[in-house]
Amino acid sequence: MTTLLVDTPHGPARASLHCAHEPRAALLLGHGAGGGVEAPDLVAACRAANSVGVHVALIEQPYRVAGRRAPAPAGQLDTAWLSVVEDLGERWFDGLPLVFGGRSSGARVACRTSVEGQAVAVLCLAFPVHPPGKPEKSRMAELDGVEVATLVVQGENDPFGQPGHAHHREVVLLKGDHSLKASVADVGRYVGEWMDRVLRPLD
Question: Which InterPro entries match (predicted)?
């Protein structure tokens, strides 16, 4: 693993690189609002992607690198993320298709930036469809705005809601809640199978 700091307009972000042999693509994964890149589902997704020939960068947003718990505003998260994408795309992943992803808040960032960042696919772990108990405050527009193949892995008992299927969006429901800790092995299995399948036409 290689760890490096990447300058962004909102302070340095941190990228932990997990490289695959003979890479066919690169997956950038962001963390949840209050958690880090060591979340079990992110680790499982990282290992699964490596196993099918995909480099992985686990991205820590500048507010986390600075030691703050409260997340930055959405616009700052998106700008910092795209700065990291551009930097790693040039320095480490040159010529490789990029897949965006993350858990919870990180999944939202991946969706919002997928068009501008030219992602070839998007992976959402525990996408927060709405705040708990507030279905009227839906965030489905962010998920619906993604124009490429998308996989959403969601806990059956997630208080943040359940997204629906769409023509380019697959939704997998697993036992457990928003943390997905109860089904970590299944997270890895579905992520690996999906990533291998969506990248095959690009090989």
Answer: AB_hydrolase_fold, KANL3/Tex30_Abhydrolase, NSL3/Tex30
- How confident is the model over 97-122, as pLDDT tens digits? 999 999 999 999 999 999 999 999 99
Phi, psi (deg, nearest 5) at residue 193: -65, -45
Please give the radius of gyration of the chain, using alpha carbons only, rounded to the nearest integer: 15
Q: What are phi and psi of 188, to 5 degrees?
A: -60, -40
- Output the CA angle 96-52-30, nearest 5 degrees: 65
Q: Annotate 102-136 with b (16+ C-beta within 10 A) or e (fewer).
A: bbbbbbbbbbbbbeebebbbbbbbbbbbeeeeeee
Taking 3-state DSSP, the helix, strand and coil percentages for the chain, each rounded to the nearest 5, stand at 35, 25, 40
Tokens of 190: 């579905």
3-state secondary structure of 199: helix
Looking at the predicted structure, is the pLDDT value of residue 203 above 90?
no
Spatial separation of the C-alpha atoms in residues 185 and 189, rounded to whole Å = 6
3-class secondary-structure state, position 91: helix
Is the per-residue pLDDT at 92 higher than 90?
A: yes
Which residues lie across from 43 on neighbouring strands?
none
Measured distance CA(137)–CA(90) in Å, rounded: 37
For domain 2-202, give the CATH superfamily.
Alpha/Beta hydrolase fold, catalytic domain (3.40.50.1820)
